[in-house]
Amino acid sequence: MTGHTLCTKIFFKDVIRAIKNSAFGPPANNPYPVILSIEMHCSAKFQDRMYEICNEVSGTRREMNGRRGGGDERPDE
Questions:
Q1: Is residue 77 over pLDDT 50?
Q2: Residue 76 has what pLDDT?
Q3: Which of 24, 32, 35, 69 could form a disulfide with 64 if both were Cys (CB 3.0 to 4.6 A apart)?
């Protein structure tokens, strides 16, 4: 959930589900990749959970920057 902002609280899983439904479901049926840039201020444990949520919702493994996606390592590792 977001905090210290002027927006209402929303669960990360709901955001990922909405992106999936609006980008890849009818009527869009988008054949192109969707790139998300996520600014995270959370622990490595929760970052791992966010990765799991993305995979659960999308139904497939996704490339993610960081240790799983082959990009830069997290600063705390």
A1: no
A2: 47
A3: 69
Q: What is the mean pLDDT of residues 15-32?
A: 83
Question: What is the C-alpha to C-alpha distance for residues 32 and 36, in angstroms, rounded to an integer?
Answer: 13
Between residues 62 and 50, the one the model is more confident about = 50
Are 58 and 20 in contact by the 8 Å Cβ rule? The answer is yes
- How many angstroms separate the CA atoms of 77 and 7, rounded? 31
Name 12's Cβ contacts closer than 8 Å, sequence gap at least 6: 1, 50, 53
DSSP one-letter string for the chain: ---SSSSPP--HHHHHHHHHHHHHSTTT---S---------S-HHHHHHHHHHHHHHHSS----TTTTTTSPPPTT-
Q: Quote the longest CA-to-CA distance of the chain.
A: 42
Q: Which residue type sits at 41?
A: H
